[in-house]
Amino acid sequence: MMLAPVYKKYYARTYSSDEDAGSDESGSSSQSSSDPVASAARWSSTSTSSSGSSSDESLSEKDLELASLKAAFVLEFGETVHVTEDAWVHSLYGWVVSQEQLEEFFESDSSGYKLDKAGNGRWRGLQEAPRHWQYDLCIRFSSVIARIVNTLNRPLEGMTREIVNSSRVDRLSDELKGRCPDISIKATGPSLEAPETSDEYAPGVGYSNVASVIDVSFDQGGDNAEEAAQHAAYCRQIFLAQPNRNFTRSLIATPDGVRLIHYDRSGVYLTPYFDIHQHPYTFIRVVLGLSSNVEEVLGLDSTVQWSIDESTGKRTHGTIISSVDANYQPIIYNLKANEAPFVRPGICGRGTTCWHAYDPVTGQRVLIKDTWRASSKRPEAEFLEAAKGIPGVVQMIAFQDWLAETKDYRPEGFGGKDFESRTKSRVVLEHYGLSIEHFTSRFQVISAIRDALEGHRKLLRKFVLHRNVAIENILFGPPGAPVGSRGILIDLDLAIWTSTPSSELQDHWRTGDRRFQSLAVLRSVGLECSPIPTFLDDLEAFFYVLAHIILLFTRPGVRNEYVDKILSRWDHDSPKDVASSKIGFVADGWCTSRWWGKASEDLIRGFQRIIRSIHVEKSPITHSTYDLHKRRDLLEAVGKETAVEDWYAKVLKLFDDALLAIDREDREAAELAQTPPAETLGNASASFSDEQDAPTTSQRNFKRRLDGSHPDAPTPKRSNAPPEPGRI
């Protein structure tokens, strides 16, 4: 077995921003460090080096890496790893091979399974492997598994299975070696594609064309979390490379026994090791299940199918079935073959996958979105139905529910109260443009945010609170979109009805992307009696979206590195630290680059004052000595004394005023560009510099400080250092 690399940056970015991932629903502490490398020391005491020592100094590089993998694993799945009952694994895959076929196989000399004089059977060669000679053991196991697959696997047209010993990959880069399982079941079929050469971890083998993977070890009885963590790296890559995966299963094999590891959107479980010599039938059934030519058995969703070019192994075109027509016939959408689907990183959680497709009747582009919702949550389609006809909010074309459930992949009664099943659903949505961070002009991006905000207000009128406002969830409308549809608010799968009682929200306080969470949401972490989210939390999220656009970008496609560094801390710090940072951010004075102009600066200054007023009203309550229930009631009452429409009206007026000013500035700039320069001026005023291509008024310097104070802001520190980039 070759350990996967430490995905430090990956884990930090992924599992602090998805309300269904990390510690949120897995039971791990919200105070856990989000840095697996920093956490590794905490776990290294359970990892023993080859010399038997558990001290940090004597731990091998392999042990340290394993400890880091385990720490990262705990961030996503929690500290408890479920193990099934002994008997359950023997009930799996009973139909893949008949009793007659099994008996015929064992009667053959080529089976490799022999009985001794006492009548005890064993797989020849496995127990004779030289101790600690890992590669030799991999060869022997590969041979045994290949005999089983080649003899008993049921053939199907267009399907092939090949057992590859991938434990020795000297020709590949160190990074790819680190992601290499010992044995791979290489596969072809309508859901599998030959990898790019750069993605191969063994010649001709990558995560896009494996049915399953197997790690080989000499010993059993390892730590459950460590063994699960090893395979999390493999299975995560399989989910990304095979986007229609519902689950993955893999094996850890020793000379005496094997155990199965299962991953899906509800998490992970393991079976106990079972003796493959005493239970050869079970061993064969498990191997055939993991190498099956039936894609559903492998965990693949067969409603998504591709045509494969036999000469290249690449996908040429594909289809996806979603919903039914008026005659209850399935509607088959054509996939856009040259545009890869979006797949949310990580395993546990919503598992969002977005397919680019075409409507079979109209030929119009559509987006087909697959998600796995927790059983306690309502389907996104409920809120999309409420959003029908609202400009500025994503529009649903069709919906299909109950495509799969994770509870069906487990023993009955599995996990008790700790387990929550997830249900797969599919929605067909209208297609829109790119996210707003791909803006090309001031007017374009500010009008998009403005229309998404207006859509949010109208959605609230339908008693729906979005709760996941973020840059990536605001898209540009189609070309030539009218006012109201220039920006589209998407992703309603975390939405709630405004009448939802707080008792139903206690387990789901962490919603959306940490970067855009409100101060109140961040402060509610871990509270037994936390206030329910309100429209003010979403308004604050819109402010952070605007700040990310106007302050993070000095112009289209160019980021302010200093501001980027500040905002990136919000991805992975603890909620308490992020809250403290945002207090200072809202209270502080931040500059806009000259490219944005006075109108943009006035917009963010005005929006900042509104958000600051919310903080000013809530902060004394947060720090009060009231009991939890009264504090919650007071916090929920903030903003209610003012009509909801008035809050939106104030913010929208800021946007409308800014857009009028920007439009005027742009028209003046266009007129100036068409006017020949006066001869007396020469070239002095012929053009603006890169930082001055937005027209200025009286040569005004727009790098002005956003003024104001905050009740929680620390006393400013004096510094003789020059201003940081992007600040004054």
UniProtKB/TrEMBL annotation:
SUPFAM superfamilies: Protein kinase-like (PK-like). InterPro entries: Kinase-like_dom_sf, Pkinase_fungal. Residues 16-58, 670-728 are annotated as: Disordered. It comes from the Eukaryota. Residues 682-700 have a biased composition (Polar residues). Residues 206-401, 419-549 form the Fungal-type protein kinase domain. Pfam families: Pkinase_fungal. Residues 24-57 have a biased composition (Low complexity). Gene3D superfamilies: Transferase(Phosphotransferase) domain 1. This is Fungal-type protein kinase domain-containing protein. The lineage of its organism: Eukaryota, Fungi, Dikarya, Basidiomycota, Agaricomycotina.
